[in-house]
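> tool_call: predict_assembly(chains=two)
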Amino acid sequence: MESFYSESPFGTSITAEEVLDSIGFLDDWEERYRYIIDLGKSLPSLPDELKTEERFVRGCQSQVWLAHQFDPAENKIYLAVDSDALIVRGLAAMVLAALNRKSPQQILQYDIQDYFTKLDLLKHLSPTRGNGVQAMVEKIHGIAKTLNAG
Amino acid sequence: MSFDIAALRAQFPILSQTVRGKPLVYLDNGATTQKPEAVIQAVDAYYRECNSNVHRGAHYLSDEATARFENARQSVADFVNASREEIIWTRGTTESINLVANCYGASLKAGDEVIISTLEHHSNIVPWQMACERSGATLKVIPMQPDGSLDLAAYRALLNQRTRIVAITHVSNSLGTVNPVAEMIRDAKAVGAATLLDGAQAVSHFNIDVRALDCDFYAFSGHKLFGPTGIGVLYGRKELLEAMPPWLGGGEMIETVSFERSTWNKLPYKFEAGTPNIAGAVGLGAAIDWLQGQDRAALAAHEAELLRDATTRAEAFQGMRLIGTAPGKVAVISFLLDGAHPHDVGQLLDQQGIAVRTGHHCTMPLMDYLGIPGTVRASFSIYNDSTDIERLFNALEKVKSFL
């Protein structure tokens, strides 16, 4: 498996709970944005040849690509996201913290809106506001549904 | 400076608010301008005092609404130096251009050519693409120089006897370039082509005289001229408007209707089907009356000073690349920060109470031409001041510390 899947810290060493915990400790917008941008910087890059039309996520102000690989033995979906904008990378990393390396069933059952609400309620941080993160989640759900049906 | 910037700002209620605990710095005037009290009050008074349908003549309120509505049309006509029957209300610049592309464009045929420029907003590209697809005409594009001005020699080379329409923007929304439209119109006339100017980004910055420009059509939006949203204007030369077929059919635009055939109302009503945006027109009239009551030469000098100040700071700012440095510009700076995506810059400015636009600004072909994904655009208006510019550049220093 390619390193951008296997070495991604999101969903393993960085989970949704840890993101919520960390954000909860940050007092002002500067700290929160520095945290998001740091998350974005720690997101492994996708090789250019994977940045194809079918992996392109529409509805984003910046360019976003979503790649995935399914491991049938483990019943897990490995996700990788890339964007040319750092804040969107950071928000994508938060989504991966919640959804990466989960089974299709787990992805579909996970209450991502509740996660977003918690992020928003915590510090007025909405990953959904017109930045394409919602479109990214829909694409991940589409992948999970297809695999679940198959 | 012969005018009082504090007094001017005080007429725009929205500017006094704080955003995220910081004073609002509104630098997205290219997208829409704020509204002075005079406009807000005119719209309010219309609904409180005389809301009614126009041109029905049935009762006192209708007469009063009609008077305000038609007075607004006269204000627009005076503002651009046209006659009132040449002023057609639309929803905005986009609809105005679509009207021309559909109605004047109805006479296009295969082999004809339509010229636009690299600087165009999608609103002055797509309607012409559609008109060309319908008719088999060809769309030609004037290339640009690296500084954001049009290549006039290339333009002249494109003009020929097949050129039917030249549709260009008066001022570039993305870069602020002011095009030499009077000269370009003269060249278009010489080959017998009709001319349309997209004035959306021009009208709030300087006087427009359609007679002096000698253009056939001039399109603009009310909301970029301190007026309400949803109201716009198409100026059209009378002879052309009379020769054009109507676009939308319905009430108001007809003279007589029978099931066999209908006949069309006189100008400008022929192009105004349905109940118009009366409150919007009244508000736009008020905006123009308000603006004409200001010392416009002083306002223009103030904007020129804002542009000089912002450009000087931009040139001295480490890591900033100005996009668009044509000699003639309105008060707009479009830029990139080294290694930073415009979207990131915009979000980090927003967190500091500063409103700018980021992205392709609805000019994707221009961005492709420049080989960039978009820009950060700070667009200034009469009520901006040197404090706004100082706050913008201080905030940009902070942005750099993040990226």
